[in-house]
Design brief:
five-stranded antiparallel sheet; 37% strand; mainly beta; Neuraminidase
């Protein structure tokens, strides 16, 4: 399969020890299900695809051996048996605005019953710069081709600025579709969107795509009976949740939220936690006060981990909990990275100390844009600059 990319474990002296353990943990923000994760000290990045992708931003699967990759310019590509298929699965490049670094095709996900109904969903910024979420259907004649004329719009969301578009779509263990949206952009959330459940921005939404077309709102969504709120809203107080993921074993939700002034954060929503949680932006950035007039309000969920801009990078990239079968030693560890540094860390909950602990496991020169899983739960890293795909594997494995 080729050479293994050497990733040097970071020495403890290279990072502030105080940032490796975050003790600001709400009592409910701990996992209660599943075996404890064991420490991982180092990993290697094994090549799956050496290049050929253009600005890849997300990787996922359709329940089989194929990898589907969203390219920011508007194409969805298929990688099968480490080979990039020449024809795109979907090409909607003519529908997009890609000016600026945060616009374009930003995410996709496949319906849990994709094998039966052929539905998948994409999120992108249209030519007006607004967010569209659309359902497409696979071609009836070719499983490697989508029907480009099958698009059915679920959402059209006005974006006041050109940044903070979010971009994650994922089906939860409950079968509902979850959607991550940034606060609408500019600096400091000038419209206070993240604290207003009446807008969809700065939130994670939860909808039932199997209900009345184009979707219905689950009856247990937290704001469904509030006339001043949007019933789709599930969680609020987020700045730019570029990526989130569900633990495939426990159902716990991890959210990476990109920082304003320098506190990148990983947020955690346990499967047993009630909906409607407020993660604090723009009153707080991480655990630090951002809007001084509102920092006396303590009804916020603080992150399980945060780090400052500098050596560690400038834009957090989540992240997945490893639940594959190939490397049991990695099980239960949440892997995440940073777009600017290429460093890769694990995060795990230490039941003995009651703390979340970060471990630096690799250093690379990769512009990491996503860490995602295949159908078997194995982990992959997307290289935005080189258009490559790497698999996360334990260090020292011999091929």
């Amino acid at each position: 399969m080729g050479m293994v990319m050497a990733c040097r474990p970071l020495e403890s002296a290279e990072r502030p020890a105080s940032l490796d353990i975050l003790r600001i943990i709400p009592p409910t923000a701990v996992p209660l299900i599943g075996p404890a994760a064991q420490p991982v000290t180092a990993v290697a990045l094994h090549p799956v695809l050496s290049g050929g992708l253009r600005k890849p931003v997300y990787l996922t699967h359709a329940g089989d051996e194929r990898l589907f990759v969203a390219e920011q310019d508007g194409r969805v590509r298929i990688v099968k048996n480490s080979e990039l298929l020449s024809d795109p699965f979907l090409d909607i490049s003519g529908l997009l605005a890609t000016d600026g670094s945060e616009r374009g095709l930003l995410g996709l996900t496949f319906h849990p019953q994709y094998a039966q109904n052929g539905y998948f969903y994409v999120v992108y910024t249209n030519r007006d710069g607004d967010t569209e979420i659309t359902r497409y259907t696979v071609s009836a004649d070719d499983p490697n081709q989508a029907d480009v004329n099958s698009g059915q719009r679920l959402f059209l969301i006005d974006q006041p600025y050109g940044n903070h578009n979010g971009g994650q779509l994922a089906f939860g263990p409950d079968g509902y579709l979850y959607i991550g949206l940034g606060d609408g952009g500019a600096v400091g959330d000038p419209y206070d969107n993240a604290q207003d459940p009446g807008t969809l921005l700065g939130s994670i939404l939860r909808i039932d795509v199997d209900g009345d077309p184009p979707y219905s709102i689950p009856a247990d969504n937290p704001f469904v009976n509030d006339p001043d709120a949007s019933g789709e809203v599930w969680l609020i107080g987020l700045r730019n949740p570029w990526a989130f993921s569900f633990d495939a074993l426990t159902g716990d939700l991890y959210i990476s939220d990109v920082a304003q002034d320098g506190l990148e954060e990983v947020n955690f929503h346990p499967a047993h936690s009630p909906a409607g949680v407020n993660f604090g932006w723009p009153y707080f950035e991480g655990s630090a006060c951002y809007d001084a007039e509102s920092c006396d309000d303590r009804n916020f969920r603080f992150p399980i981990f945060e780090y400052e801009h500098g050596e560690d990078g400038c834009a957090v990239i989540g992240g997945q909990v490893y639940r594959g079968q190939q490397f049991p030693a990695l099980a239960g560890n949440y892997f995440f990275s940073d777009f600017c540094s290429g460093k890769i860390w694990t995060l795990r909950f230490d039941e003995t100390t009651g703390e979340w602990v970060r471990t630096a496991v690799a250093e690379s020169t990769t512009l990491v844009s996503a860490i995602s899983t295949d159908a078997a739960g194995e982990l992959y890293v997307l290289d935005y600059a080189e258009g490559a795909i790497w698999q996360i594997q334990p260090a020292g494995k011999i091929y």
